Amino acid sequence: MDYLKKIDRIVEILSANNRNVEVERIQDLRQAAFTVIELLLSVGYELSRMVKTPVIKNMIGNEVEDLIQYCKRINLLIDEA
């Protein structure tokens, strides 16, 4: 999986639905990450927290689940928010 494209896709969906606060949060985390592991853990955690909101889950739930499953396959466990 191209995790950067997946994160970009999630940002696109959120942006198209005017979820600017969420978009900014994900972009900030992405820019702050120094390593791939830090990126996946921080963005994955934040996204898992975001999808607790039903409206956001309907928008990006499947995309987030794909990203979290990818993390599990490479032995990165995202804490549940």
Model description:
- The chain has 81 residues and is mainly alpha-helical.
- The chain has one domain (3-73).
- The protein has four helices and no strands.
The averaged pLDDT comes out at 95
**How would you spell out the order of helices and strands?**
HHHH
Sheet with the most strands?
A: none
- Number of separate structural domains: 1
Radius of gyration equals 11 Å
Structural key phrases:
globular; 4 helices; mainly alpha; 81 residues; single chain
Question: Could you give the topology of this structure?
Answer:
Layout: H1 3-16, H2 20-32, H3 36-50, H4 54-73
Helix pairs in contact: 1-2, 1-4, 2-3, 3-4
Structure described in brief:
The chain has 81 residues and is mainly alpha-helical.
